Amino acid sequence: MAAIFPNDWRWWRGRALPSPAGAAAAEEEDEPRASPRLPLLTTTLSSACCGPSAAPPAMVPSEENQLVPKEDMFWSCRQSIFAEMKKKFSQVESAAEEPRVLCIIQDTTNSKTVNERVTLNLPASTPLKRLFEDVASKVGYVNGTFDLVWGNGDNVTDTQTPIDQNSDKTILDAGFEPGKKNFLHLTDKDGEQPHIMPEESGTTDDSAQDRLIGPLPREGSVGCTNDYVSQSYSYSSVLSKSETGYVGLVNQAMTCYLNSLLQTLFMTPEFRNALYKWEFEESEEDPVTSIPYQLQRLFVLLQTSKKRAIETTDVTRSFGWDSSEAWQQHDVQELCRVMFDALEQKWKQTEQADLINQLYQGKLKDYVRCLECGYEGWRIDTYLDIPLVIRPYGSNQAFASVEEALHAFIQPEILDGPNQYFCERCKKKCDARKGLRFLHFPYLLTLQLKRFDFDYTTMHRIKLNDRMTFPEELDMSVFIDVEDEKSPQTESCTDSGAENEGSCHSDQMSNDFSNDDGVDEGICLESNSAAERISKAGSEKSSLLYELFSVMVHSGSAAGGHYYACIKSFSDDQWYSFNDQHVSKITQEDIKKTYGGSSGSRGYYSSAFASSTNAYMLIYRLKDPTRNAKFLEAHEYPEHIKQLVQKERELEEQEKRQREIERNTCKIKLFCMHPTKQIMMENKLEVHKDRTLKEAVEIAYKLMDLEEAVPLDCCRLVKYDEFHDYLERSYEGEEDTPMGLLLGGVKSTYMFDLLLETRRPDQVFQCYKPGEVMVKVHVVDLKTESVAPPISIRAYLNQTVSEFKQLISKATHLPAETMRVVLERCYNDLRLLNVSSKTLKAEGFFRSNKVFIESSESLDRHVAYTDSHLWKLLDRHANTIRLYVSLPEQSPGSQFRRAVYQKSSGDSGNLDEGCERVKGPVGNMKSVEAILEESTEKLKSLSLQQQQEGDNGDSSKSTEASDFENIESPLNEIDSSTSAENRELENQIQISDPENLQSEERSDSDVNNDRSTSSVDSDILSSSHSSDTLCNVDNAPLPLANGLDSHSITSSRRSKANQGKKETWDTAEEDSGTDSEYDESGKSRGEAQYMYFKSEPYAADEGSGEGQKWLMVHVDKRITLSAFKQHLEPFVGVPSSHFKVFRVYASNQEFESVRLNETLSSFSDDNKITIRLGRALKKGEYRVKVYQLLVNEPEPCKFLLDAVFAKGMTVRQSKEELLPQLREQCGLDLTIDRFRLRKKTWKNPGTVFLDYHIYEEDINISSNWEVFLEILDGVEKMKSMSQLAVLSRRWRPSEMKLDSFQEVVLESSSVEELKEKLSEISGIPLENIEFAKGRGTFPCDISILEIHQDLDWNPKVSTLNVWPLYICDDGAVIFYRDKTEELMELTDEQRNELMKKESSRLQKTGHRVTYSPRKEKALKIYLDGAPNKDLTQD
After folding, report:
1. What is the distance between the alpha carbons of residues 239 and 310, in angstroms, rounded to a whole number?
2. How far apart are CA 1370 and CA 1250, in angstroms?
3. Spatial CA neighbour of 421 closest among 490, 371, 364
4. pLDDT in tens, 164-208
5. For a 10 Å CB count at each end of the chain, is N or C smaller?
């Protein structure tokens, strides 16, 4: 309190007031407790005792004739002050201790505002009335015209009952929970839309932005004055014009540069008036592609619209741009030039043909004067803007002001030395002066501040943010040279000002430009005599005073940013910030903040781009009362503009009416099961909230096109939950109820859907009551082992199981006494409902449920449920999936083997009889065993013959043979013998069908490397099956064995669940390779369980390939891949070890499934499988992709082939196996000592594998492993793992060139040894060797412009395996150089050329490019509205 009331409590002490007895006690008694919020009470105290409502205390004369208060009146006043203070203190303390309630309000009355949230953090004691007032203030609605309802349902029981606005309850008493998020929905009141707050009371958001000249602050930043998440974006603020009276422009995406220019042109009276005078002839041109007409429309809307901001899409469409152009950033000065060119083309042969030149064009002279004879060659150039350099080339100091930059612009340079000028008069090279002179300036002077530059040191585009001031009034008379008119009559020079190329329109003119057209270009020297011209120019020099009226500001960096415009209105001389859709008042001080430099605001984008906000383009207007125009008044508009204004007003009113209709239209999902096609149809029902339910049924009836299928009176709308497939309720007796009340108001999204239900004329609609649950009942027949399609019944959760059975009995006409009911609560959770007294709710019923019932007199009822036939049947039903299997095209060889398989069956054309229903992979396949019996002996004889002729070096063959000993099953016996003889069998295929070599599909490696394989027995043929091999499968129900159909099999799983599964590739375990198809006992692993497998031929769609056959397989997905392959053997025609299974994913990509002991649980209904011939992997084998390492080629990594390496195999053995494959598939005829294998990590070569290394012992190997094959130039130098092989490359700075790679093999990690080796191969003296480690992935490409200084040359280390080198493995890249060799000096032209070549080279190789700016698209405006004409080339 001392801070407020110094000198104790008696602040009247200066008035010599006597203190009565007991005052101290009173003070002590009345002193309030201290609080950290005391400073807030100063105004409260002053108003309490001295405020306007407080009566002054009675005053009496004192002894010194000073008026002082009466003593009793004073103490009375003091007591009242203390009482007031106590009250305020208690309020402060209670507010500090009171819990807060977080309210989040969603405006659901309109689709455009539904994503907006209003957040209020209120004290728990806040009355409900105050809540409504705060919400109304935030969203811009009139209080009392809307309702608030609960949005989450956690607080109250009825989520649709509006909160009582007139209640005296606090929000805490009303059910709001402190410390939690309380969600509310703002809805219509009594079906009426909320009323928007009038404009004068709804523009409070703008006042907070009045001082803001940059982009609007984001949420939580300084300047955010309210809790509304989206600044100034309530429904009312979207539609209401800014309080400034000006309309903004919507930013399409990155069109801020366009918006800035358009607002500047709109605020230019001369341009706007001239544009209005131009009249569009619709008979001559399409209005959509007419740029002047669309500009007219835009300007009319900017002048008359009541909206806060309008779109520019019609203007950009007239430019010939599509939506992608909205995402391209461009330079505002470039746009100005291109758009002016387009307008000149469109205005040819009209009154406005020379408008751009009249307003914006100036002239200057580009001259060269010989310093010996005085001869001058010159040329007249025109310009639309003057480019001013911010910082002179090579200087670190920027120009301080625009005036200084203008002086530098016309400062001549001396051409001497090698740059001497060849004088036509002297007939020799002489020193000369070259420069520019302004001849006259335009009426509207445009200055471009060249803030974007290129830094040749870093090779980056940069933005110069240096401070450059510019005056509000600019006197240009000092920059025009009258004496220039006396220049001698000489021939025009051919060299123009190169430094201004691209900013001045070159215009070759005759010497005597007095004969130039007499068009007024602002300041024109048009007299015929030189004396008159000089006189005229002299008078104009004194009147060249310009006033600034537009500053186009760029906030950002050279990589990107944001444009906005600061524009002065000539109507009231007030500055405004036009920042896309936001328009606000600013001051001259705000303009000064755009000078740039470290002082002042750095702008919105500074944190993201490390840049600042500064002026980029300045536009001045000549101060000439005789020419300065004012904007046309409405009565001065030409007739066609008046008509256009009226037309746009009508369109806006129509849009407003349409928007009002839109806000009152209910949009909800509509479903309908077509009565004849029996397919579920989906659409969106849009109906006005005042339309009745009966009218909505008619609309839905026509929308679903049911006129020819069912009468209208046989249709009705019911409330439906599509996700749970649940009918929530029907609307009996509510045919005349408005849809707005029926659906709970107009909302952007509804938590339910509508179903258009149909019936036959002889049927009656069932009544669906709220609270009922829907049950789909499947009847199970144990005799036929079938599950019938579902029938739907409705029940209540409080019904008992016994009552539920009676209900089902009525619907199915089955006895309830013997009925068994099984509830499928979730996947594979089958619960028998055997407690009759339990309620459905207790059993776990929900909105939508599925049950299976069986009612027979069989003994199965008395068996334990989990051992019963019913449970097994339902378990199989829940786990059965439908797959489509593509069989390989049949070759003579495979036909031969299929004939062997089918020899005993009698009917070779029927492939299904041998495999109808099995209880295991071998179980009941007697016919298949008979088919295979004869082929077994032949295969065994082939095996013996192969073993006698076998290659001792092929260790994998002996491994394969040992894997299949003591196999009991005849089917497995075949697999054993054939697996040992796979190569000979595959060779038979090749010999039998040579054409099949070209018919194989491409592997996944082919896709990556554009290399096609040709061998049928290639060890891997995987992904990217050609698209014509696969077909779109018809999903119609197909009959299955034992009464099952495809519908009943898939009905237990919703398609949504299948779609939601994340598919994973089938690859082998990383450490153990693939699994054997058999367990240790030799038995197939699938024999242990009851598995279901049923197949039948399937007719694929056209385009799936001639001769290709398909199977539709219904299989228990718990079957292993190994068992699944054995079931497919009779159809493929070869043992399971000789074909591979490929799973087809999206976009027809294929990946091989190799985990034989895994089940098909990752598969789902209607998945596709492709079968390919070729040896499958055995236990301990791995598929390996072999790439060739080409260290000195542009693409150093080239795919060769796929191979199989086995655990325990040596590197040399794998090389021996590779030799014939390299010869046949790649045309590489190598010897075993001419190449090496080495580790491949991404594209980087790694450890060199030595011949004696063993896979899985010395070398870790995994599935889909990759290795490099490197062809050697000579004898292998790597003999030991202690050696280190690095790749060295010499850098020659004097030639700006890199030599080829050379391998250096080191015996240790010594830096000294590395230098010695480099000295040996290069001839550089040891003491002059400098080296650096390469960066990035191999080949560590780097620009030759950067390598000399960017790499860490000559690191101060003694060994290679320490920081910063960390070279511990083979394959590291080392650059080295001769430190005495000087770097080549490059001219700017050479450097630029070299930079382009290097950039192109590095981009082609896919390596890092130091300078890689966003690819810019040229800015073009197409005059015919289509992108087939390049205007900028005109």
Report:
1. 10
2. 12
3. 371
4. 888 888 888 888 888 888 888 888 887 677 888 765 443 333 333
5. C
Residue 1044's φ and ψ, nearest 5 degrees, are -75, 145
Interatomic CA distance for residues 1174 and 1152, integer angstroms: 12
> How confident is the model over 339-374, as pLDDT tens digits?
999 999 989 888 889 999 999 999 999 999 999 998
Residue 1316: band (very low, low, confident or very high) from pLDDT cuts 50, 70, 90: very high
pLDDT of residue 681 exceeding 90, the answer is yes
Residue 1388 CB burial class (10 angstroms; 0-12, 13-18, ≥19): exposed
Tokens of 270: 């001369």
For residue 1163, which of 1131, 1181, 1141, 1137 has the smallest C-alpha distance?
1141
CA dist., res. 1319 & res. 1326, Å (int): 6
CA angle, residues 1168, 1170, 1171, in degrees to nearest 5: 145
For residue 934, pLDDT beyond 90: no
CB atoms near residue 616 (< 10 Å): 26
Direct distance between the N- and C-terminal alpha carbons of the chain, in angstroms, rounded to an integer: 79
> What is the CB neighbour count within 10 angstroms for residue 1142?
23
Helices (H), 993-1101: 1004-1009, 1046-1050, 1055-1060
**Cα 466 from Cα 452, distance rounded (Å):** 11
CB pairs under 8 A, 24+ apart, for 300-306? 300/641, 300/644, 300/645, 300/648, 301/247, 301/648, 302/246, 302/247, 302/249, 302/263, 302/266, 303/247, 304/645, 304/648, 304/649, 305/241, 305/247, 305/648, 305/652, 306/239, 306/240, 306/241, 306/652
Instruction: Taking the CA atoms of 810, 811, 816 and 818 in sequence, report the sign of the dihedral they define.
Output: positive
Residue 1074 contacts residue 1177 (beta carbons within 8 Å): yes
According to the model, what pLDDT value does residue 328 have?
86
Token pair for residue 751? Answer: 């938590």
Hey, is 94 helix, strand or coil? Answer: helix
Closest by CA position to 1036, among listed 1026, 1023, 1050, 1018: 1050
Distance CA 1244, CA 840 (A): 64
- Separation in Å, CA 883 to CA 428, 1022, 1166: 90, 19, 5
pTM of the model: 0.49
- H or E segment at 984? helix 982-992
Distance CA 1133, CA 935 (A): 11
Residue 854 corresponds to which amino acid? E
Cα separations (Å) of 812 from 130, 807, 1148? 59, 9, 45
Could you give the angle at the alpha carbon of 1057 between the alpha carbons of 1053 and 1058, nearest 5°? 85
Under 8 Å between Cβ of 426 and 363 = no
Sequential DSSP letters for 750-786: -SSEEEEEE--TT--PPP--TTEEEEEEEEEETTTTE
Q: Is residue 1176 within 8 Å of 1183, Cβ to Cβ? A: no
Measured distance CA(1298)–CA(1400) in Å, rounded: 17
- Alpha carbon of 100 to those of 124, 150, 152, 219, 859: distances in Å? 5, 18, 19, 21, 67
Edge-to-edge strand list for the sheet holding 362-370: 413-415, 432-440, 362-370, 376-383, 504-506
Residue from 340, 299, 342, 301 nearest 320 by CA: 342
Residue type, 402: V
Cα distance between residue 755 and residue 863, in whole Å: 43
Please report, for residues 215, 218, 253, 292, the alpha-carbon distance to residue 329 in angstroms, rounded to integers and kept in the order given. 17, 22, 9, 23
| CA atoms of 1145 and 1162, how far apart (whole Å) | 12
User: Active-site residue numbers?
Assistant: 256, 562
Half-sphere exposure of residue 164: CA atoms within 13 angstroms, side-chain side: 9
CA distance linking residue 71 with residue 79, whole number of Å: 12
Distance (Å, rounded) from C-alpha 306 to C-alpha 202?
Answer: 14
